[in-house]
């Protein structure tokens, strides 16, 4: 079990900054680790709406508003700013990451064989590396292919950084939603689902 006091580092690797699986998230009530505080600010699972609380997910609008408010409330508005991009282009993501910006990417699941509702749900990931010619490394995945983690405890271990590298296709089958996509992003049984890059939240350091 992690110690009750933060440490040993002074940055985001503090033990209280990740989700402790031994303490359940109480939908914003009571003491919270940093990730749970951010989830409350971003209305994750509609935790701030008592009548529909529990529905899974975080709307991009709530993510942007929540992170912006958290930055303001913690007095960090002179250190960080936000930029939200709908349908972000790949060169723009390359530019922002190479300028040391933090990038949260929302990938919409896409099933090319579906007759109805070919796109559904979505998943937020962090961009850890990128190549302009067409590859991207993502962290905080549903499936850690390069670094499999058998338990959620290992997934939340701050000493383990897991990321996978994917080739990028610039010929989007849904140009109205995204200009690029990952053809084989998520596996369901024998089926490979694509990831459509529909939204990005850029966290820029000021100065």
Question: What's this, in brief?
Answer:
The chain is built from four helices and seven strands. It is of the alpha+beta class.
Can you offer a commentary on this structure?
The chain is of the alpha+beta class and 207 residues long. It folds into two domains: 9-77, no CATH class; 81-207, no CATH class. Helix content is 17%, strand content 30%. The chain contains four helices and seven strands; from the N terminus they run ααβαβββαβββ. It has helices at residues 34-41, 60-73, 90-98, 152-155; strands spanning 80-86, 102-110, 119-131, 135-139, 163-167, 181-188, 191-205. Strands 1, 2, 3, 4, 5, 6 and 7 form a seven-stranded antiparallel beta sheet that branches. Strand 6 (181-188) and strand 7 (191-205) form a beta hairpin.
Draw up the topology in text.
Blueprint: H1 34-41, H2 60-73, E1 80-86, H3 90-98, E2 102-110, E3 119-131, E4 135-139, H4 152-155, E5 163-167, E6 181-188, E7 191-205
Antiparallel strand pairs: 1-7, 2-3, 2-7, 3-4, 4-5, 6-7
Helix pairs in contact: 1-2
């Amino acid at each position: 079990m992690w110690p009750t006091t933060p440490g040993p580092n002074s940055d985001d690797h503090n033990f209280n900054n990740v989700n402790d699986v031994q303490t359940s998230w109480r939908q914003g009530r009571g003491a919270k680790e940093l990730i749970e505080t951010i989830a409350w600010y971003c209305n994750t699972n509609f935790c701030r709406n008592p009548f529909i609380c529990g529905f899974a997910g975080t709307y991009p609008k709530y993510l942007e508003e929540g992170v912006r408010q958290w930055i303001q409330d913690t007095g960090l508005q002179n250190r960080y700013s936000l930029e939200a991009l709908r349908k972000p282009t790949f060169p723009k993501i390359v530019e922002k990451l190479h300028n040391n910006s933090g990038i949260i990417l929302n990938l919409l699941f896409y099933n090319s064989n579906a007759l109805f509702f070919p796109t559904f749900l979505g998943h937020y990931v962090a961009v850890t590396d990128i190549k302009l010619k067409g590859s991207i490394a993502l962290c905080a995945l549903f499936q850690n292919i390069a670094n499999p983690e058998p338990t959620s405890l290992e997934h939340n271990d701050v000493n383990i950084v897991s990321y996978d590298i994917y080739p990028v296709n610039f010929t989007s089958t849904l140009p109205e939603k995204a200009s690029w996509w990952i053809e084989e992003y998520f596996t369901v049984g024998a089926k490979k689902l694509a990831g459509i890059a529909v939204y990005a939240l850029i966290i820029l350091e000021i100065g």
